[in-house]
Sequence to fold (329 residues):
Amino acid sequence: MDKQDSGKSGNISPKCPFGYDSQTFKIGPFSCMICQALLFDSSRCAPCSHVYCRTCISRFKDCPLCGADIEKIEADSDLQKVVDRFIEGHARIKRSQVKTDQEEAKDEKETVIYEDVSLERGAFLVQQAMRAFRGQNVESAKSRLSLCVEDIREQLEKMGNTSELCSQLGAVLGMLGDCCRALGDAGSAVCYFEESVEFLKKVATDDLEVIHTLSVSLNKIGDLKYYDGDLEAARSYYLQCLNIRRDAAKNRSSSPSQILDVAVSLAKVADADRNLGNEDVANDGFQEAIKLLESLTLKSEEVGLEQRRLSVMEFLKNQLADRQADPTS
Fold:
């Protein structure tokens, strides 16, 4: 046993036996080989008995592991209960050691703490959610994120609205909004994004990551309102997003990606203005965005940003060309 604090405390750091820690990740017996996340709605193929998430395996006619024809898919509730218990008990940061009588006699005052090197529970759940989302198992991602939200809300009740907890909750709520949007539930997506904005606004605005997450949530609400036909509401959210991004670029050393974000927001506000019949205002917004992009200098290795810049520039120039082609509009 390692000793700390002149023998007054001990530290034991066991790794998670299934490999879920901050340094490594491996596919374990509780994982789905398709989405590479923990099993959700565990289902067994017949006759080969290989197990996957139901959503994942439902896209296949043959077993991805052995190639056998899938005659039917059966729920494996017993295995799912084991997976759920694993999640529930996983990633406890600190827990006290149950000492033997011999150890107690050796030093009654010694404090021994077990510290998992596995991921903290919230980060673990988000990791699993992101894997499931990338694997197109959105229901699994939503379930993991919902557990994470419950955990953070419990902490908020105990500790109050700390900046750390509010930023964490805002980020996870935004991810839940993405899940709902992917599932076609626009109403729930808007609710999650709005709650994300509510908590992120409680955080000090000097954190660039929080600012970015806040602006993205506002932008996504604007998109949902836009496609729902509520142009006034869409413009309002786009404008809030634009103002936040402008302030961030103005008051701090702005990066090329920040400038691109401002140009995108200008384009969205201008597009909403055009659809609301405010052509002159829209034209000014498109022109401002073009000038911003033309002034942007990118390094040769920033290929992704250059592609994005060219894509936005093409959209903006097309918008102006459309107006010139129809001067009566």
Remarks:
- The mean pLDDT is 83.
